[in-house]
């Protein structure tokens, strides 16, 4: 069902005891032109109530859940069941909006959602935002944006605008950390390539690359409103990111060694970080000030987590222990002893009563947080347990290991339910979606995988080049592209299917520039290895290697007849090549710095070159 085909904009889900407040909201919505499903207006005498409710839910675009002490009472089971189809992250056409009528805290998994504060005194302030969120989204045309269609574009092209297709080339090194957004629709990943990436899980596309760290990103964390993120890095810092704008808002400095782990408090006002300097720090997110330093571990702190009450926190360490801390005083309340090797990861259940720990001793342990007693030990991996996570309901657990697998566990019985196989190297990080139906795993094989928890199927592999894309080129029909990478390869891509058609290997160093021949049957590539290569795109064979430059070749260009090529280099020269014989026809000198770009004129009788720093543009 498309957004425009719903009969109702909003379905008001509420307790009968809250009828007066909800009726007033329904009338206000109606006056502003929204189509509202409100039970008093839709259910008539003699109607089947369950049938009418189901019809209303099926035909509504948004479910507005009115939360209160009344709603969380005897009516809760029914009200919660109404939310499921609207909270499904795969159902992009529907939306779920929680609204608080009183000061009652959101229940269970609802705590992860940003809600509308509809308490007395807040309603006039909140209403404009609420009604805007409930209005049907408008499709913006190219004309309304002031975009002029291309000359010669057909009517269909004008009406539909420009369709975008993004091929994500993925992280360029091991994926160290993964985390679901609170609605399960997006994910964050941190990598050995020093970046944080924001992903759309439905399409598999990379929405944003967050750059700023100067070393490995060990862990990433979402704020409760999913608008900001924290990252912990081997550059000894924590960074706060604005995910909408892609900006780094703040850098938290104070740790003396690598920052291994980071976690937001439930209200996103404070953060915890764990470091290789053996300390955990408490931060004020808004000011960047370090509020408190927690000392006690005898070695590297590998992971940190907040207890849901936000008054206590857990940390685990290479000293083989886990510790429970009083956040307000900095005192260590309890030490958990039992693992025979480094404790690598900690996860908490929804109520904070139980904690899960993973260790290099190849086991996972379930602990009673209040008593410090080990309730259960899980043993099945054939390697170190690197990452653990508990499902939102606390019934299941995930573990990732250097045996290249992820495992799903029954927390109550300790049984291994399922083994997820597919990664080619260590599984560094695991996460389970808010609805517990999907899981993410990040690996040192440079990929992140999205899994169906129920079936064990891999739904999507988020990957691409295993090196940064340094040069790209379009095929003339816009359906194929070439990319050159720091992993010393070229790749030929099908842009319709987003698949890699062929990998070209032969360069000894980073491939800087790539170019199609005019007939798109051959390609040229230049490299940091001082060589230029000519490729047959159909067979993948290297036809010829051109060597003469004294340094890195930065750019390459074809002549219109396909018989000659130009190359620019760090050696401050251009070179003209005969592609049939492989000989250098001419060396063009004159630039005083690196030649970054070269281009032939359409008749191939003249050329342009651009140089760095000296701001030179040369016509030859």
Structure description:
- By secondary structure, the protein is mostly beta strands.
- It has three domains: 3-134, Toll/interleukin-1 receptor homology (TIR) domain (Rossmann fold), CATH 3.40.50.10140; 223-461, YVTN repeat-like/Quinoprotein amine dehydrogenase (Methylamine Dehydrogenase, Chain H, 7 Propeller); 469-619, 7 Propeller (Methylamine Dehydrogenase, Chain H), CATH 2.130.10.
- Helix content is 9%, strand content 44%.
- The strands form twelve sheets. The protein has a five-stranded parallel beta sheet with strand order 2-1-3-4-5, sandwiched between helices.
- Residues 139-169, 464-470 and 613-617 have low confidence and may be disordered.
Number of helices: 6
List the quaternary state of the chains: single chain
Provide the structure class: mainly beta
The coarse silhouette is globular
Total number of beta strands: 48
Helicity, as a percent range = under 10%
Q: Just name the CATH architecture of the largest domain.
A: 7 Propeller
Strand content: 35-45%
End-to-end CA span = 61 Å
CATH superfamily of the largest domain: YVTN repeat-like/Quinoprotein amine dehydrogenase
The top level CATH class name of the largest domain? Mainly Beta
Overall pLDDT score: 83
Q: Could you say what the CATH topology of the largest domain is called?
A: Methylamine Dehydrogenase, Chain H
Tally of domains: 3
Q: Biggest sheet, strands in spatial order?
A: 2-1-3-4-5
Low-confidence stretches are 139-169, 464-470, 613-617
Task: Please give the largest β-sheet.
Answer: 5 strands, parallel
Q: What radius of gyration results from the CA coordinates? A: 29 Å
């Amino acid at each position: 069902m498309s957004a425009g085909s719903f009969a109702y904009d909003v379905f008001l889900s509420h307790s009968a005891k809250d009828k007066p407040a909800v009726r007033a909201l329904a009338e206000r919505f109606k006056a502003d032109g929204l189509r509202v499903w409100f039970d008093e207006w839709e259910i008539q005498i003699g109607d089947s109530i369950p049938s009418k409710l189901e019809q209303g839910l099926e035909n509504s675009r948004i479910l507005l859940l009115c939360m209160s002490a009344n709603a969380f009472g005897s009516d809760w089971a029914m009200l919660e069941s109404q939310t499921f189809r609207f909270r499904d992250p795969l159902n992009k056409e529907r939306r779920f909006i929680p609204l608080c009528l009183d000061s009652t805290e959101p229940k269970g998994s609802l705590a992860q959602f940003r809600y509308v504060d509809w308490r007395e005194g807040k309603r006039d302030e909140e209403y404009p935002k609420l009604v805007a969120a409930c209005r049907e989204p408008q499709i913006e045309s190219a004309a309304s944006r002031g975009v002029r269609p291309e000359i010669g574009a057909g009517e269909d092209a004008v009406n539909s605008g420009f369709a975008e297709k993004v091929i994500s080339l993925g992280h360029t090194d091991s994926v160290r950390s993964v985390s679901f957004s609170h609605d399960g629709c997006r994910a964050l990943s941190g990598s050995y390539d020093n970046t944080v990436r924001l992903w759309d899980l439905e399409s598999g596309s990379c929405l944003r690359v967050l750059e700023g760290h100067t070393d490995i990103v060990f862990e990433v964390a979402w704020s409760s409103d999913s608008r900001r993120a924290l990252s912990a890095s081997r550059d000894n810092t924590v960074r706060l990111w604005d995910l909408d704008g892609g900006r780094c808002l703040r850098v938290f400095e104070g740790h003396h060694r690598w920052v291994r782990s980071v976690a937001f408090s439930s209200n996103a006002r404070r953060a915890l970080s764990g470091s290789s300097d053996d300390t955990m720090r408490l931060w004020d997110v808004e000011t960047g000030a370090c509020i408190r330093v927690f000392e006690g571990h005898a070695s590297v702190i590998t992971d940190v987590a907040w207890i849901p009450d936000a008054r206590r926190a857990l940390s685990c360490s290479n000293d083989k222990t886990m510790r429970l801390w009083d956040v307000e005083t900095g005192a260590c309340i309890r030490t958990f002893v039992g693992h025979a090797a480094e404790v690598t990861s900690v996860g908490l259940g929804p109520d904070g009563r139980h904690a899960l720990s993973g260790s290099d001793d190849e086991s996972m342990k379930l602990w009673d947080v209040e008593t410090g007693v080990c309730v259960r030990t899980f043993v099945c991996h054939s390697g170190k347990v690197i990452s653990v996570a508990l499902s939102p309901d606390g019934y299941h657990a995930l573990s990732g290991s250097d045996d290249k697998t992820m495992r799903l566990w029954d927390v109550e019985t300790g049984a291994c339910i399922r083994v997820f196989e597919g990664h080619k190297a260590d599984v560094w990080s695991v996460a389970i979606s808010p609805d517990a139906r999907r899981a993410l795993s990040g690996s040192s094989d440079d990929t992140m995988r999205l899994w169906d928890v129920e079936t064990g199927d891999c739904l999507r592999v988020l990957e691409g080049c295993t090196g940064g894309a340094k040069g790209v080129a379009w095929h003339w029909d816009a359906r194929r592209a070439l990319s050159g990478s720091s992993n010393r390869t070229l790749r030929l891509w099908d842009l319709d299917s987003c698949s890699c058609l062929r990998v070209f290997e032969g360069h000894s160093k980073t491939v800087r520039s790539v170019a199609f021949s005019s007939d798109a049957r051959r390609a040229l590539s230049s490299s940091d290895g001082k060589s230029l290569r000519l490729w047959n795109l159909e067979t993948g064979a290297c036809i010829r290697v051109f060597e003469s430059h004294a340094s890195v070749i930065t750019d390459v260009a074809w002549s219109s007849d396909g018989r000659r090529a130009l190359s620019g280099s760090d050696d401050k020269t251009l070179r003209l090549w005969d592609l049939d014989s492989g000989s250098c026809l001419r060396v063009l000198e004159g630039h005083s710095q690196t030649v970054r770009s070269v281009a032939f004129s359409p008749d191939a009788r003249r050329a342009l070159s651009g140089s760095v720093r000296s701001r030179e543009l040369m016509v030859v």
